[in-house]
Structures are given as structure tokens and as C-alpha cells.
Amino acid sequence: MFLLLLEHLFLALVVASLVGVYLSRGREELLRVVVVGVKNIPGVGSVVASLLKSEASSFIRQSPIGSGGGGGAGGKPPRVTLPKKGLPHEELRAKLKGMKEREVDHEKGQVFAYAYTLTDDHFELQKDVFDMFTEKLGHSEDHEKIVREFQLAFLHENALNPMIYPCLRQMETEVISMTAAMLNGNDDTVGFMTSGGTESVLMAVKAYRDRARQLYPHIKQPEIVAPRTQHPVLAKAAHYFGLTIKHVPVAPDYSADPKELEKAIGPNTILLACSAPQFCHGIVDPVEELSTLALKYGLPLHVDACFGGFMLPWLEKLGYKIPKWDFRCPGVTSISADIHKYGYCVKGASAIVYRNSEIRKHQIYTYAEWPGGLYGSPSMAGTRPGANIAAAWASLQSLGEDGFMQKSKELMELTETLKQGVHDIDGLTIIGEPHMTSFAVGSNDPDVNIMAVADVMETKGWKMERQQKPDCLHCSILPHHTHSAVKLLTDLADSVTAVRNNQSLKKKGTAGIYGMMATIPDKAIINDFITEFFSEVYTLK
What we know:
Distance between the termini: 74 Å
Strand content: 5-15%
Radius of gyration: 26 Å
């Protein structure tokens, strides 16, 4: 009976707040104290959470989301998976037409926010420029065309408020559902779309920071433990959100070393992180072992699969030996995966996927005190471009499992050919044993400075990705490399010969700069140099 009374009391308070009952500041504070106190009574917190969820679901059913515009029963779209076979483009165009007919048309002048457009030649110019810069996604011309059609159809729509453009909400939830299934998630697996891998990792770190604040309020200096090869965006996220990151040495094969990670775990550790694969050398970390470690210490484990999330699942299905790295590992609590990489979508589309909604809730930012209304946001950005959500949905639907399998097969076969070609060049070697469509080229000859090789390659028209510790060149193999693979191997061989015959090259260009930086003990000076570089390169005359 007591709990029933509390339910009714809390429901009354929630409803009163939602319908806009205005209270004096003193009564607001009293309300806050009462609500917090009620939630902290043993056994009541779960009742309150269940009640809030029920009220939110009821609100959604009564909103535009639940009365059409892409909602299923109770306003919730059903979970979906990638189609086994990519949908015909005419079928996708029919779906697009139906979506646009259900969507709010802001051009009628009945929407007071979200879309700021000029319906004249200015708008047409933007469409032309946008179309020009979104060509050549790395797949067939037909695939590119249908993706651009969806982009242009939602070019000015804004996913800031899911109630205004419910079709965007439907597409986003379906993109996450398809991604979750691909990553071996289940019906509890949820997530959000973001603008890219950086934002996906930022949001994961923010979620785990806020989770730790709730569960472990005594931790004042939260720490993340990750291998040295972890993408710098994790350190960036730690910097932004007031955490520190402990980088640990990797194993001799350049994968994360579970023993080193375990040694680094301390009383302030709130998160473990690893990669699938790490970008530097294309090597998947031992996620299964790290999953066991995470469970042992009761820590969440984030897998950064921004690079490989849309490639590794298909390579495994093709029979390549890929270590388990996804939600099949019980300690994995979240995965980031970029759709705009091997999902063959235009830039500006990524997914952050969580094992369950309890973890995901910590990603959401809310603010109920604003005179402008109740505010909530699931991502760093407020405005969220509808065009990129629509393009991601169209890309996944267009390709389907068969399209991804075919493209993955082609690119992996090309990668294997290129790796063998590099091995056949005297003086070059592949760093470690890559697991997917990327590799790093190093030197096994003291007379062949790999940075000098990069400099010579750039005189031949290539743009090389230089790496350090050890010095090497990163190569992500992409669809357009089908046309340049033979030239790549020929030019690499010629560049190695040029460097071997002219040792002075290792003291010039970027080879000289990297060589000099390696001798500087205080890396803060190098950081200052990088800061000055970005400051200058974006400075006007």
C-alpha cells in the first residue's frame, strides 16, 4: 500500500510538472528534495524508474511520433536487420516518397524552428554544391545516386527534435537496429547516430563518466585505461570531459596486452577501451580477453570499431580468421562504428551502440530549467543534419548483406594482393599481422628510411599517411584503389630504390622532420608545434 501511495504521489508530481504548474522557488526546492528522497528509499527507485518509463511511453503514443510518421505499435518502430539482398532502388524511391508525404513540410510555414531555408535559386545552388561534393562514395554509380537522392530529400531537415521529423527518427532507429544486429547485439541493444567516430567516442566517454558519477560518487579523478595504439580521440574525450587516460604498452604483435591493462587498473578506473582494429596497423585487439578482464573488475569495456565495424563482420562470414570482438564478448558494453567508412555513406554518419538502455541513458543531456521549454539532446550537436541520417539508412538498405559481402570480398582480396606485393619489395615489410583491409608498411633495411620513401612517393602524386613508433606508412584499402594498385606497387619499388641510392633523402623533407622530432625528449614542444601549425594553417592573410 505504501509503495502504491508513493506511485500516485510521484505520478501527481510528474504530471503537474509536465502540464506546467508554476511553483515558487522555495516550493521547487522542496519538490526536488521530496523527489530525491523518495527515489532513495530502498525498493522505490525501480518503481519510480518504471513509472517514468511508462509516462514517457504514454506521452510518445499521444505525440505525433505515435500517431503516424514512422512509429509502430506504441509509437515504437520495430527492430530491423540488414536486408539479405539490397533493396531495388525503385522500391527505395517509393519508400522515400511515402516518408516525405508523412513528414512535416516546413516550407508551408507551420514550423517555428529547426529548418532555415530559402526556397529560391539559393536553395538550388546549395543542392548543386552538396551534390557535387558527395559524389564518388566508393561503390557503384547507382548506389551513389540513390544515397544522394535521400540526402537531398532531407537536406534541410533537423533531427534535433524527433517529434518534428518522425521519419528521421524512424530511419535513425532502424540504422541503429541494423548496426546492432550486425554487431551481434540483441533486442536490448540500443544506440544513437552521431556525426562521426570522434563524436561517437566522445559520447561513450561522457556516458561512462556520468555513470561513474552516479554509481561511484567517491571517485573524483576518473581514469580510462587503454593501449598505446588507441585512437587519440579517446584522449581527446578524456581531456574534454575531465578524465585522465592511462596508456599502456602493447604486446610484441602490436595488439593490446591484457596483462599491462590489468596492471594499470586502479581505484579510479571507470572504463577500459580497445580497438577492432586499431587504426595504426589494422590489428584487432584481444577483445575476448579484455572482456573477461572487464567482468573480473566490474568495469565497462568500450570497443572502438569506428574503422572496422562495417568490415570485420563480413570478413568473418567470408571465412577470414577474425578474433571475436563484438557483443558476443559479454564484457563489451559499447561499440562505436562509422557508417561513413566501410558503410559506404557520405561523411557525417557514425553509430554509438550500447549493450542496453541503462548505459545509453547516461549519454543523454537534459535541462528542465530553460524558459524556452524542456531540453534534451542525445549527442554533442544540437542540430543534427537529417541528410546524413537519411543517406546512412539508404546506404544500408541499398547494399544489404549481399552488397557488403561482395564489396568486402573484393577489397580483402585486393588487400592481400597488395600486402604480398609489398613483401616482394626488398627493404619493405608489413607491420604485424593485420586482420582487415588495411596495413602498415615499414622498413627492414637500415638503408631504406620509410619516411624518405613517403617523400619520394609524394613526388609521384601519392598522399602518404605517416606513422611513428615504429616509423611506417598506413594504407587503408578503399574501392578506388582497384584502379591504382599496380601503380602503387611500382612506385613503391621505385621509391625504395631512389632512397637506397641517395642516403641524403633521409635528412630532407618530412623524413628529416620526423627524425628530428624523435630526438626531442620534451614532447610538449612538439605539441606546441602542432598547435602553432593549426593556428597558422587556418589564418587568413
